[in-house]
Amino acid sequence: MATTTAQLKRTYNQLFIGGSWVTPSSDRQIQVINPYTEEVVGTVPSGGGEDVERAVAAAKAAFPSWSATPLEERLALCSKVGELLAANSGEIAAVICAELGMPLRLCELIQVGLPTTTFRSMAEVAPKVEWEERVGNSIVLREPVGVVAAITPWNYPLHQIAAKVAPALAAGCTVVLKPSGVAPLNAFILAELIEQAGFPPGVFNLVSGGGREVGEALASHPDVDMVSFTGSTAVGRRVTELAAKTIKRVAMELGGKSANVILEDADLAKAVPDGVAKCFLNSGQTCSALTRMVVPRRLLGEVEELAAQAAATYRLGDPFDPETRLGPLVSADQRQIVRSYIEKGVAEGAKLVCGGPEPPQQPTHGYFVQPTVFSEVEPGQTIAQEEIFGPVLSIIPYDTEEEAVEIANGTIYGLAGGVWSGDRERAIAVAKRLRTGQVEINGGAFNPLAPFGGYKQSGNGRELGRHGVEEFLELKALQL
Ligand code: NAP
Fold it and tell me: What does the domain layout of the chain look like in residue ranges?
């Protein structure tokens, strides 16, 4: 697909600050690699501290007037971005496919579909916020928190940006976005669309660059009121520490090791392939992936067989080929990390049902890892505890429902989960015992208006829908 890479190649030399495309403080660049062809698919500036200063100053200057702009006007601009995303969806999906490696049809559906929905949904959800209420002799107001720094990862790059930028703008905040350097091209397209939509200068600013420079400068900047971060738990901890020095508000969307609890009365023929799909989506590079399948011990053999059958349907290949179900991992580094985890699973004694650490026979280029299923995994083993971020499923057997719940709750994370049962009420009762932010009941569909976020070390705060807008609001009480 060399021609596709060439056609999709994007070169950005400027940052978007104060309503204009400006020359960065240095000429350093970040090269974006197509993980299938292993070729450069684009370049963006690698900004630094000076660029952060300019962007934060622009956001600070824009805040008084933007926060005082009537809600309907702010929402009309958010809706306009939604329309522009929809109108450019084919191109954006292809760019994300090239920089991330997720199959194209999934990029269309998820990587562009979700952010479009998020921008459009603001007009529906923001008016539901209780902007003003009476509590005894007080009027309680909800007001925008101020200048927001949004720091985002690469795995669902535009979705994670939209989940912060849309509600922050709707709430009346101004934003400085630092996208991931691994898949930043979509952020530049969004900035172009935000410019086209006609937001006032400084309301939205884009500074690409390394996490250590741009990310840390934003997290510690005294004029940034809130940091909204999505990424790994390790970096989230660092951002929280930096933000603490100026007592900023932090919202953290971090890692996960989510459990899919299959009860013995579940329909295995549905539950197991669905669970495999929820683990392998985006080559396993999904924070809410259901990476632990917790199953009754007496059904283990049947589950293993169904899981192996499901895994065999994941055809590896060119993400632009409609037959491809599993793209490469995003980078050579990620591939190495995931292979090491598979080796560790074998070394710690888990049963390898299919896949393994060796490179697949086909394709011969691209950062691929074989879709891998482990069984007889012990709850304390590394592959049952740590986020792998690759297409690796751990099947963990249990003897009692009590034990299943204990296993599900037995990691530092709590982002997502699943429960399968022939009896929905029973599944809901088990779901209520899980210490996690979301639970799918019998494969219930993702709801882009429901709050999304983590318990424990999966983070704090919630994104999406009305709850996502409320993240960016302060409370003020006026006593009468
Ligand atoms: P990451 O390495 O933590 O990076 C996330 C962002 O933080 C990137 O923009 C990165 O910049 C920046 N960053 C890195 N070091 C920084 C520092 N010292 N200070 C400030 N910012 C810094 O995560 P990733 O590898 O991009 O994404 C994968 C992780 O995100 C996984 O752990 C996944 O579970 C998590 N995730 C969570 C959710 C959720 O909603 N809970 C959703 C998606 C992903 P550069 O890398 O460009 O330098």
Answer: 5-254+458-479, 259-447
CA 18 to chain centre: 27
For ligand 1, the distance from its centroid to the CA atom of residue 358, given in whole angstroms, is 27
Superfamily classification of domain 259-447: Aldehyde Dehydrogenase; Chain A, domain 2 (3.40.309.10)
* CA–centroid distance for 262 within its chain: 25
- Of 55, 47, 49, give the one whose Cα is nearest residue 14: 47
Q: Is the CB of 227 under 6 A from ligand 1?
A: no
How far apart, in Å, are the Cα atoms of 331 and each of 263, 283, 412?
37, 12, 26
Mutate to test the pocket of ligand 1, among 235, 257, 334, 415 (most ligand atoms within 8 A of CB): 235
Q: Ligand 1 centre from 128 Cα, in Å?
A: 31
CA 265 → CA 260, 271, 432, distances in Å? 14, 11, 18
pLDDT at 7 (0 to 100): 76
Structure tokens at 295: 């199953």
Closest CA to 112 of 145, 83, 73, 138: 83
Give the span between the Cα atoms of 11 and 151, in whole angstroms: 22
CA 368/CA 370 separation, integer angstroms: 7
Q: Which atom of ligand 1 is nearest to the CA of 30?
A: 47
5-254+458-479 sits in which CATH class?
Answer: alpha beta
- Determine whether the shortest distance from the Cβ of 63 to ligand 1 is under 6 A: no
Residue 1 pLDDT: 45
Distance of alpha carbon 440 from its chain centroid, rounded? 17
Let me know if 253 is a catalytic residue.
yes
The pTM assigned to this predicted structure is: 0.97
Considering 99, 213, 216, 253, which one is annotated as catalytic? 253
Residue closest via CA to ligand 1's atom 37 equals 254
pLDDT > 90 fraction of the chain, expressed in percent and rounded: 98
Instruction: Answer whether 202 contacts ligand 1 (Cβ < 6 A).
Output: no
Position 8 scores a pLDDT of: 81
CA dihedral 245, 214, 86, 117 (to 10 degrees): -20
Q: Hey, what amino acid is at 278?
A: K
Q: Is 287 known to be catalytic?
A: yes
Q: Which residue has the tokens 């420079």?
A: 213
* DSSP letter for each residue of 37-63: T-SEEEEEE---HHHHHHHHHHHHHHH
**Contact (CB, 8 A) for 96 and 158:** yes
Quote the percentage of the chain above a pLDDT of 70: 99
Q: Which of 287, 452, 456 to mutate to test the pocket of ligand 1 (most atoms within 8 A of CB)?
A: 287
Task: Read off the pLDDT of each residue in 149-168 and give the average, rounded to a whole number.
Answer: 98
Is pLDDT above 90 for 4? no
